[in-house]
Amino acid sequence: MTELEATVEIQRVLVPVLDLCGTFAFAISGALAGVRRRLDVFGVLVLSFVASSFGGIGRDLLIGATPPAALVDWRYLAVSLAAGLITFFWWPLIERLQTPVRLLDAIGLAFFAVAGAEKALAFGLNPVMAVLLGMLTGVGGGMVRDILLAEIPGVLRSDLYAVAALLAAAIVVGGHMLHLPVVPTAIVGGLLCFTLRMIAIRRGWGLPIAR
Amino acid sequence: MTELEATVEIQRVLVPVLDLCGTFAFAISGALAGVRRRLDVFGVLVLSFVASSFGGIGRDLLIGATPPAALVDWRYLAVSLAAGLITFFWWPLIERLQTPVRLLDAIGLAFFAVAGAEKALAFGLNPVMAVLLGMLTGVGGGMVRDILLAEIPGVLRSDLYAVAALLAAAIVVGGHMLHLPVVPTAIVGGLLCFTLRMIAIRRGWGLPIAR
Amino acid sequence: MTELEATVEIQRVLVPVLDLCGTFAFAISGALAGVRRRLDVFGVLVLSFVASSFGGIGRDLLIGATPPAALVDWRYLAVSLAAGLITFFWWPLIERLQTPVRLLDAIGLAFFAVAGAEKALAFGLNPVMAVLLGMLTGVGGGMVRDILLAEIPGVLRSDLYAVAALLAAAIVVGGHMLHLPVVPTAIVGGLLCFTLRMIAIRRGWGLPIAR
């Protein structure tokens, strides 16, 4: 296997795995929020799908990529419904598994931000907007989840969630502008996002509030 | 008149009537919610239009059918503004007419779910997503209505509203996959949705909540 | 310079100035709302951008003009981030400058409503919908701002905000239907909107609420 073939192979296997991991983790966050607010099983499943897919759906609507990927590929729906049902039935267990869920969530954030920025670039958005759309892909699902629960989106007032997504998207777009190879840039961006997110959780890092 | 001509004639007359009945009923639900929350007349009319049309508008944005049908055909707007003004001026009367309003609402739900699933199929969505978009057409307007009122959408936590829409959309899509004739399938789907919805109201049927 | 050249020159200079004034004022309204609700600096900047640009983005999504203008032209983002940062650091000053901020806001409303109606006409929407989309361009950003703060949009229950935007859009569309020259019609529409808005603030004019 040549080096190129190996890279392609890694991409072919790794990308869907990370994508579905992220979808799964985000869906759990939606389902848990729904269970806590006493939604019925339909509401819990709606929140699962919204939290996992509305970042990407928002991005696709904005760049004109209709119908959105999450409505064309049934696997996103299947994974988020599975996560929603698991959470609905075994939510006390899921709540105790906080650490692995946060780990998956940080993987999802990193992956969605990277993939979102790449898709925006592929659709010809300018670099600044590609960064923002990468970030939106990462945080948009959680924002719609919170809006559906009539709450101010948590990402607007706590810790370094969006900043980590912004960092990943900025690295992807910067690499694109400098004509660096795509896969290594994406990996660096994703890993930095993941690392920053995990440190921010552990240290309780957040952004300043106006005095 | 041949049988085919009769069918076409029924479709030509009945479809717009059911569509505008549904629009009218959904607009009343939006206007009543606005009056109860002390919105001014502009706010009440916005809620009328949103409740009656944003299910279909959401579907059209997602499938890429822009501008959405509700913005091209002025009759939807006219009917929802009429419903909004009637409710604004005579809301105590409308509140007393709960039974006919619920009847119209169930007709609207059935019709919107059927028509929404058919439109999604016509735009080439896969069967699973066509079912979901049919359901969205039925319940989306009410969800946006509730979001505008800063409330958790009622459909996420009570009775069999969305499930009835899901049933209608699933029957339409199932019929399409089995190459059954369109009109009878649509009628069966719509009637079952309507019936399930009316029974759910009467019996207080709902979906389970996580323990 | 001929009269036509003068007109073109005015349009070339004045239109972007008014557009960016409006963007600036709307962004301040978003940032102030974010500061008051104790969002972090990221949340404040999101609200700045949303309040200034989501009226136009909503219009562009509905008419199928993707990617929306606010994502293609980086100046909108730059102006709204600048307004957001200024507000974040000097919000007590901005709160004391209520009168000039309201003046800018009324200019923004007038300009957005006029420009929104013109864009909707250019995309072939029918006159009634062009009026509504002009109004949406003026009031949509503020509505999404309020939804993100889990509040009922202020425009649904207070004073003559939306009606002023509706007036401007209706004059633009009326002029279009009567084949009147575009620029004078736009100026008349914008000025009437601005004047009505300022009088409504001063006199406390509002719309009726259902009894």
From TrEMBL, chains A, B, C:
Keywords: Cell membrane, Membrane, Transmembrane, Transmembrane helix. InterPro entries: Gly_transporter. It is a multi-pass membrane protein. The keyword Acetylation does not apply. Pfam families: Gly_transporter. One of its GO terms (cellular component) is plasma membrane. It is found in: Cell membrane. Residues 17-91, 103-174 form the Glycine transporter domain. The chain crosses the membrane at residues 13-35, 42-62, 74-91, 128-148, 160-177, 183-201. PANTHER family: INNER MEMBRANE PROTEIN, UPF0126 INNER MEMBRANE PROTEIN YADS-RELATED. Belongs to the UPF0126 family. This is Trimeric intracellular cation channel family protein.
